[in-house]
Amino acid sequence: VSYVSLQPDNKTEAMYLSLDKSTVAEVDLETDDIGSAIEQNLNRLESLFGQLEKGEALPANGTPSICRYCDVQGVCRKDFSWLPK
Question: What is the pLDDT of residues 19-28, one digit of tens each?
């Protein structure tokens, strides 16, 4: 959705490529209102950059079903008990 926000008006859909070790797949954004999805994403990014400017750490956004396979959990700090949940 971030890249879609950089395009001219009249956007009707968005998708991304899911890459893993053996496949590449197109994944559609599931929304009936692409404009709202773009606005929500831009608000999220603005909030994140504001937090970074204040010296706050980035949140770890992975889900447990994905994180259990991750080899770099220490990089995102998701499991560190001293971080606020």
Answer: 877 888 887 7
Bridge partners (DSSP) of residue 28 are: 15
For residue 60, with 0-12 CB atoms within 10 Å meaning exposed, 13-18 middle and 19 or more buried, which class applies? middle
Q: Which of 58, 40, 61 is nearest to 48 (CA)?
A: 58
Whole-model pTM: value is 0.53
> pLDDT, tens digit, for every residue of 19-70?
877 888 887 777 778 788 888 888 988 998 898 899 987 777 777 777 777 7
Closest CA to 13 of 25, 21, 4: 4
Dist CA 29 CA 34 (whole Å): 8
